[in-house]
Design goal:
With about 350 residues, the protein is of the alpha+beta class. It folds into three domains: about 160 residues, no CATH class; about 60 residues, SH3 type barrels (Roll), CATH 2.30.30; about 80 residues, Alpha-Beta Plaits (2-Layer Sandwich). About 60% of the residues lie in helices and about 15% in strands. The chain is built from ten helices and ten strands. Strand 5 and strand 6 form a beta hairpin.
């Protein structure tokens, strides 16, 4: 009686075949679960002792992306002994290809995202830079999933040559129409990886200057000193000669001052030493030189150079102000007069 049931035909297969299929899948699932519970957990415990995070990431990626495919593989092997209709068998194959494509694309994206975030951590980038990183990840996802769909359609037997050709012609037309947008997009990648400037950097581009507020996929926004927002296309910035004052280690300062032609020779000889002593007495400053430079139209000109050991503009102005006060004080003590534009008329009696 029991054997009659086992050999009963149901949908072109014996009941015994269905039982074999079920137990095959069950054994496969048990093996996968044992591998997951024992071997994977031991590997996880081992990776927790290491300093690198790559091994932890790989184990998590395998756990999330590989095991669903293993379960489907056990199911696929278990039904190999069954007689299935061509439609059902083809549907299972299509399902397998879809799952393989989805999990393969997800695993690739996981690897790319981990690599980009590891790069972000290594470079010590801030929150604003992470927003740019998120934009790159979004673009990468679109590209990867686009290729995944094309590969899937090709494996499903769909003739995609005409589609690819059409997309190629359409892509060329779109690229020509949107070359400025694409140029800004590639410039966005250049700004992210090459890092000519970052958020909160003070930059000068041509006649425009200000603090970087936002770096987007197409435009970069800068807050000018007068308060308005300047919007640059990314390609404009990467193609321009840009000065980044935030990365200036020290500021070179050059200024000139003039004294009257009535100033005596001994006083003129004292002025360079006096200015040098004044600058050397100021904190966070390195004196370079001070010289009697030239005979001007209405003054004797001295040229002075020193370095401020900071990129802060306000600090530079405070230091320059302090130096100016001290020079004025010393000149008054020595009765040295600053020159100002004057003209002397000589009248001859006829």
């Amino acid at each position: 009686m029991f054997q009659d049931v086992l050999y009963q035909i149901v949908f072109h297969n014996r009941v015994l075949d269905y039982l074999i299929c079920f137990f095959t899948f069950l054994v496969g699932a048990i093996i996968i679960q044992i591998f997951k519970s024992i071997l994977l957990n031991r590997l996880k415990a081992w990776t927790e002792k290491t300093s690198t995070t790559l091994d932890d990431f790989l184990i998590q990626a395998v756990k999330k992306q590989l095991f669903p495919l293993l379960y489907f593989g056990a199911f696929y092997l278990s039904i190999r002994g069954l007689v299935l209709s061509s439609v059902l068998y083809k549907s299972i194959n299509i399902l397998g290809l879809i799952l393989l494509t989805i999990f393969g694309a997800r695993f690739l994206l996981t690897m790319i995202e981990y690599s980009l975030k590891a790069y972000w951590v290594k470079k010590g980038m801030g929150t604003a830079k992470k927003q740019a990183l998120d934009g790159i990840i979004m673009v990468t996802k679109v590209v990867v999933w686009g290729f995944a769909v094309i590969i899937l359609l090709d494996n499903l037997g769909i003739k995609i040559s005409a589609l690819v050709a059409g997309l190629g012609i359409g892509g060329i037309a779109i690229a020509l129409a949107a070359q400025a947008v694409l140029g800004d997009l590639f410039s966005y990648f250049t700004i992210f990886f090459d890092r000519p400037f970052e958020i909160d950097d003070f930059i000068i581009v041509g006649d425009y200057l200000g603090t970087v507020e936002h770096v987007g996929i197409k435009t970069t926004r800068v807050r000018s000193l007068s308060g308005e927002q300047l919007v640059f296309s990314n390609s404009d910035l990467t193609n321009s000669r840009l000065r980044n004052y935030k990365r200036m280690d020290k500021r070179r300062v050059n200024f000139k001052l003039g004294v009257t032609y009535e100033t005596g020779l001994e006083q003129l000889k004292e002025i360079p030493t006096m200015i040098a002593n004044i600058i050397k007495s100021v904190d966070d400053v390195v004196f370079d030189r001070a010289h009697f430079f030239s005979y001007g139209d209405f003054s004797l000109v001295f040229d002075v150079v020193y370095y401020v050991l900071s990129s802060d503009y306000n600090k530079y102005m405070d230091i320059q102000q302090e130096i100016n006060f001290k020079i004025k004080e010393e000149f008054e003590k020595r009765k040295i007069e600053f020159a100002y534009p004057t003209q002397t008329l000589y009248l001859n009696k006829m």
